[in-house]
Amino acid sequence: MLNIKLTGRKWNGARVPMCGFPIIHLDKHLKTLVQNHHRFVALCEEFPKYGSFGEKSFERRVTRIVTPGTLIDEPFLNTIENNYLLSIHFAADASSIGLAWTDVSTGELFSKKSHLHSLRDELARICPREVVLRPAASPSTHEATESMLKEEGVFFTSWQLETDNLLPADVESAAVSLLSTYLSKNLMENAPTLSNPRHEADSKMMHLDAHTIKSLEIKESTYAGGTKGSLVSVIKRTTTDSGTRLLARRLCGLTFIPIMYSLIPLP
After folding, report:
1. How far is CA 188 from CA 16, 103, 108, 180, 258, in A?
2. What is the pLDDT of residues 177-192, one digit of tens each?
């Protein structure tokens, strides 16, 4: 996967196969493993340990698990899109779902209550890099959701909490709790302090569905491919990457602005 040379060393009369790379190349190989191959990478660091007689040794401990939705370094991030990590929590009867998503690099946190039939449109609008999916009570509902995520090309993880009985009854609050626990479990001491979630309501936003976003070529051009020729590329006047991401997000979720019209009688 990394296209690095395999080698070996003599140890205790035998040749031990091994491979490695300098630490300065860590970012490049993390991008290959996590973004291109959708692998989880555990980072282990050495910690000194002292015995009863003062002898020094080292032990290795996992300090962070890197996943597609928890990359926080700017070189990994797409200029146009936020690197969203989305959690989905199902109601017991699957009548509604709770959504919570965050960009770990900025600390923004959003939440919303939605329905299973609207999930495809929500995915097109949010464009998550990774989805944390709590298994639904109904196996058929869970399988249908997994099938949808595969069709949309979204990387997802089915994740069961150790303390499911402690989740809030409200699906939206449960999704936020699921997301927070997942970040703490993987990022450990590097986990960010999430802000209070911004609740999104359909009554205040005009959300575009998946078909409209693609047909209007808001973020990507259907003919040329990529961002060239898209609406974002035409009106982009931002000076920072975060500003470009904010612009793309605003175009896919337009706030209703009341407009007053005056009737002018025709001659």
Report:
1. 33, 17, 19, 11, 45
2. 889 888 888 888 777 7
| Radius of gyration over every alpha carbon of the chain, rounded to an integer in angstroms | 23
As given in the structure block, the two tokens for residue 20 are: 């490695």
Cβ neighbours for 85, distance < 8 A, ≥ 6 positions apart = 67, 69, 70, 101, 102, 103, 104, 128, 129, 130, 131, 132, 179, 182, 183
One-character DSSP codes across 191-205: ---PPPPEE--TTTE
| pLDDT given for residue 168 in this prediction | 74
* DSSP run (H or E) holding 99: strand 97-103
Q: Which residues contact 207 (CB under 8 A, 6 or more apart)?
A: 121, 122, 125, 252, 253
Q: Which two tokens stand for residue 19?
A: 């491979």
Sign of CA dihedral 72, 74, 76, 77: positive
Question: For residue 131, what pLDDT is reported?
Answer: 94
Alpha carbon distance 3, 141 (integer Å)? 40
Q: Which amino acid is at 47?
A: F
H, E, C per residue of 120-184: HHHHHHHCEEEEEECCCCCHHHHHHHHHHHHHCCCCEEECCCCCHHHCCCCHHHHHHHHHHHHHH
Q: 223: Cβ–Cβ under 8 A, 6 or more apart, which residues?
A: 229
**Contact between residue 85 and residue 129 where contact means Cβ atoms under 8 Å apart:** yes
Structural tokens at position 136? 């639904």
- Strands 205-207, 128-133: pairing kind: unpaired
Residues 202-219: what's their mean pLDDT?
68
CA distance 81 to 96: 27
pTM summary value: 0.71
**Mean pLDDT of the 246-253 span:** 72
